[in-house]
Amino acid sequence: MKIQGPGYQGDVGRTERGSKSDAASSARPGKPVRKASGDHVEISPAAVELHRLMDAANAAPEVRADRVASLRQAVKNGTYAVDDAELAGRLIEEYLGE
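User: That's the sequence. What structure does it adopt?
Assistant: Structure tokens below.
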């Protein structure tokens, strides 16, 4: 994200003890302080895509009820089987970060 424009002052939250802000120190009695105009914010395409993906993930149900039901039935029937080689491979991939 980029913030640009004549009113941009960098570390806005940072102040020094005993100093006045730029607007207050440059203002003279009877002269209005000029407001900055033309400021704008640009959001990168990657940030827009991330926001879209986060919205989609948040909208998805946490539990896939259909999958849970089918697995529950397979366990109940005694037909649920785990492929040892596939499980080991996935554990290794997870551990190595692949």
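The beta strands are 2-4, 40-42.
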